[in-house]
Design a protein that fits this description.
single chain; 257 residues; 4 helices
């Protein structure tokens, strides 16, 4: 079966996006996601299942690059916004995306900039770590040696698979405080990718929430290896994220299912 995908980057977090074919069941979706992400590397794969243009409502099936299910990703939602506006060339400036984690509002600001109203942040109790759910679970750890974050991949992997966080597992976001209290550097070790990614929207939100809880900063700029995101936590039930999305390429694949 032939599949056409658009590879879109949200601050360096990359996703293949395609329309769902009605004959492709969930098991084959997982297979396709894994195979395509091996052929043309990306952090995840999105099947856009439906688009109600009248009400501007979207529904997706979202997978990590290993074919595992993913609840939500802020950068991926911006990439969907890009796909709807620039690839499908639809009208409108506001879209509602239905995800496992809840409904996400996507606002078109310009061709390559989108604002996302993400799900309510949930702080979770843990005796040793700052732990929260920003659509997916994140441990947030402040590091002084941030520039060498790749040296901590095994440390993050052990936390990600720690039995106390099963069955969901957890992402791990490392942060570094800059001299400007409204700016953080951050990088996330993500489930499903099983490595650090160039950017992570839910990780950036978790970092901003840490900055809010620890230092009372309601608006935080989070600098990740792939780009910069602006997080607004003035309303914790409706936190906002603004950042870029760009097209990297369009691809065609023949995959046997």
């Amino acid at each position: 079966m032939k599949f056409l995908t658009s590879l879109v980057s949200g601050a360096g977090n990359t996703f293949h996006i395609t329309w769902k074919n009605s004959v492709v069941d969930k098991d084959n979706q997982k297979k396709i996601a894994k195979e395509v992400c091996l052929k043309q590397p990306a952090d995840g794969f999105i099947f856009l299942n439906s688009f109600d243009q009248l009400n501007q409502k979207l529904n997706w099936s979202f997978y990590n690059n290993d074919g595992s299910d993913a609840e939500m990703c802020g950068n991926a939602t911006r990439c969907v916004g890009y796909f709807v506006k620039n690839v499908l060339q639809t009208s409108g400036s506001f879209f509602n995306l239905e995800t496992v984690a809840g409904n996400i509002n996507i606002e078109y600001l310009s061709s390559n900039i989108y604002k996302i109203q993400m799900t309510e942040i949930i702080e979770m109790s843990h005796p040793n770590y700052f732990y929260c759910d920003t659509g997916v679970p994140h441990i947030v750890i402040e590091f002084a040696d941030f520039k060498n974050y790749k040296n901590y991949s095994e440390y993050c992997r052990n936390l990600r698979f720690n039995p106390e966080f099963l069955p969901r597992g957890t992402n791990v976001t490392l942060i570094f405080k800059t001299p400007d209290s409204t700016v953080l550097k951050a990088v996330s070790y993500e489930r499903g990718v099983e490595n650090f990614t160039e950017a992570c929207g839910t990780g950036a939100m978790a970092a901003a929430y840490y900055n809010y809880k620890k230092f009372n900063e309601k608006i935080t700029t989070v600098q990740m290896p792939g780009g910069e995101l602006i997080l607004n936590l003035e309303n914790l039930k409706k936190p906002l994220m603004t950042g870029p999305a760009i097209l990297l390429g369009e691809y065609s694949y023949d995959i046997e299912i």
